[in-house]
Amino acid sequence: MGLTKIHTRSAIYLMSFKRLLQDTAGSLLVKQWKLIEKEDIVPIEDSMLPEVLRIQVDGFENGNEEKLIKYSKKSRNIFYVIKDKDKIVGYCVYYLKPVLSLKGFEKQSVISSIATDKNFRGKGFAERLLKGSIEEMKVNGITFIHLYVNVNNLPAIKLYEKTGFRIIKQVENICGQNEKCYEMGLRLA
Ligand SMILES: CC(C)(COP(=O)(O)OP(=O)(O)OC[C@H]1O[C@@H](n2cnc3c(N)ncnc32)[C@H](O)[C@@H]1OP(=O)(O)O)[C@@H](O)C(=O)NCCC(=O)NCCS
Questions:
Q1: Quick one: CA torsion of 124, 126, 127, 128, rounded to 10 degrees?
Q2: Which residues are in the N-acetyltransferase domain (predicted)?
């Protein structure tokens, strides 16, 4: 086997091992998650899933249903649903990303998906979802929140900037093939 092949294989094994470590540490953190009382914002329940999936399908051209279903089972505590009276009007789902640095383990998170019902947009629901979930992230020792947003998605970019996120850099092929998006971040500690 050539040296290049050995290097490529080692890199792939290392990346898979790193991902496995992050997933395991992430699952442990989610299990110990502290919930805070948030008016109208609750962790997802199975019965809410069809409505949440409908909002996702309406909000995204190529939403990933399977991913939402997986997170609703594995990461219930950080899958936030907002209601107006009893109606589900939006959701915001995170995953945890423990990062090993020279300072030790840093608990970071990533917003995987956020959307509000088309009939309830412009009423402050997404902003409340973000603010409520960010408060809970702080209580749980999360130091940094990441997200990726298409460069043309102005409503979302404005929303994130309003809640304190800043653009870190432009990246390609993360939001979709050949699509340009911004990596944005919010430091909490
Ligand atoms: C982006 C999205 C979640 C915003 O939800 P929303 O409930 O309408 O947002 P809010 O009413 O809480 O708005 C909060 C702030 O966001 C910004 N914003 C929201 N909609 C906007 C729009 N159409 N144009 C410009 N800014 C907008 C504004 O700064 C607004 O504050 P303001 O009302 O004081 O000006 C919603 O448009 C959506 O679901 N889009 C489809 C899914 C999506 O793109 N998700 C983001 C993927 S990265």
A1: 80
A2: 39-189
Q: What is the pLDDT of residue 113?
A: 97
* Total domains present in the chain: 1
pLDDT digits (tens, 9 = 90+) for 60-95: 988 899 999 999 999 999 999 999 999 999 999 999
Q: How far apart are CA 97 and CA 25, in angstroms?
A: 8
Residue 185 has pLDDT above 80, yes or no: yes
What's the CATH code of the domain at 146? Answer: 3.40.630.30
Q: Give the residue among 102, 98, 126, 100 at the shortest CA–CA distance from 110.
A: 98
Q: How far is the CA of 25 from the centre of ligand 1 (A)?
A: 32
Q: What is the residue range of 146's domain?
A: 3-187
**C-alpha–C-alpha distance, residues 71 and 91, integer Å:** 12
Q: Enumerate residues 6+ apart whose C-beta is below 8 A from 28.
A: none
Check residue 1 and give its pLDDT.
63
Sheet holding 41-43, edge to edge: 41-43, 79-84, 87-101, 104-116, 144-150, 180-187, 166-172
- For the chain, the C-alpha Rg in angstroms (whole number) is 18
Whole-number Å distance, alpha carbon 18 to ligand 1 midpoint, is 34
| 120 Cα–ligand 1 center, Å | 10
Per the prediction, the chain carries an average pLDDT of 93
